[in-house]
Amino acid sequence: MNKALDKLNEQLSFEYESAYIYKQMEIFADGYDLPGFAHWLGKQSMEEVEHAEKMKSFLLDVGYDVKLLEMSTPKNDYKDIHEVIQTAYEHEKEVTRRIHEIANLAKEEDKRVYSFIQWYIDEQVEEEANFSHLLAMLERAKGNWGGMYIIDGQLASR
Ligand code: FEO
Fold first, then answer.
1. Measured in angstroms, how far is the CA atom of residue 111 from the centroid of ligand 1?
2. Out of 73, 117, 128, 129, which residue is the most buried by the measure of CB atoms under 10 Å away?
3. 62 CA to middle of ligand 1, Å?
4. Closest CA to 61 of 112, 3, 98, 2
5. pTM of the model
6. C-beta 95 within 6 A of ligand 1
7. Using an 8 Å Cβ cutoff, are 120 and 8 in contact?
8. What is the CA radius of gyration of the chain?
9. Helix 111-141 crosses helix 81-109 at what angle (to 10 degrees)?
10. Distance separating alpha carbons of residues 144 and 113, to the nearest angstrom
11. Quick check: CB of 48 below 6 Å from ligand 1?
12. Closest residue CA from atom 1 of ligand 1
């Protein structure tokens, strides 16, 4: 039994679940007439699939019996776009917590996983920063639609 590999297999599904959550957020933003946010969140969703695919390839390379786990239905009843981004930021902090847990486990148990997970530790710094910067901009706009549309326009170029 290798707990580090088991945890990584769990994280693989959590990365797909992240993609699913961001896809629902994209749909919310689209329905909320914020195409830039929708585009940005759609890209984020695709990035999560890439994170999952990398894990899948690694697990297969080490001969692990990869199994996808059940996913929860993503939340879709957001109050506004601010709540979407706040929720996404909290979600990324949870991803970071899980990645660090895998790293701590792997450090003793499996050096291959420990080496592999380093990329994700670095990536999470960027993931959290993306959402916290966006959140700061939204907080400054304070729901003012002029400001919101400027941010929306910027996000369209991701
Ligand atoms: Fe794959 Fe956004 O963490």
1. 22
2. 117
3. 22
4. 112
5. 0.96
6. yes
7. no
8. 17
9. 160
10. 46
11. yes
12. 48
